[in-house]
Write a structure and sequence with these properties.
8 strands
Length: 92
């Protein structure tokens, strides 16, 4: 019985370690979801938060997400209201 325990404990630790390594690797490589993006246009007559579409950005971390709109870079944001955009988006 003692021999069985001395064999099973290291095997259990090895299996747990390998499982943890795979779980950590998967979490690091999962792609963040796209976001629906808008940009603020102060010169627009009524709706100042202008719809852009789906972009490869997120609301939490990374460099600021910009897209070329009409030849100039615009900061992508989440929608808050027709006259106001919300959180700035960041590149995935």
């Amino acid at each position: 019985m003692k021999n069985l325990k001395t064999i099973l404990v290291p095997v259990a630790i090895l299996v747990f370690g390998v499982g943890s390594a795979f779980a950590t690797n998967k979490a690091k490589t999962e792609k963040k979801a796209s976001e629906t993006a808008y940009y603020f246009d102060a010169s627009a007559p009524d709706e100042k938060c202008i719809f852009v579409g789906e972009v490869d950005c997120n609301p939490t971390s990374g460099p600021v997400c910009t897209e070329l709109i009409g030849g100039s870079p615009k900061v992508m944001q989440q929608f808050l209201s027709e006259t106001e955009c919300g959180v700035t988006l960041h590149r995935n």
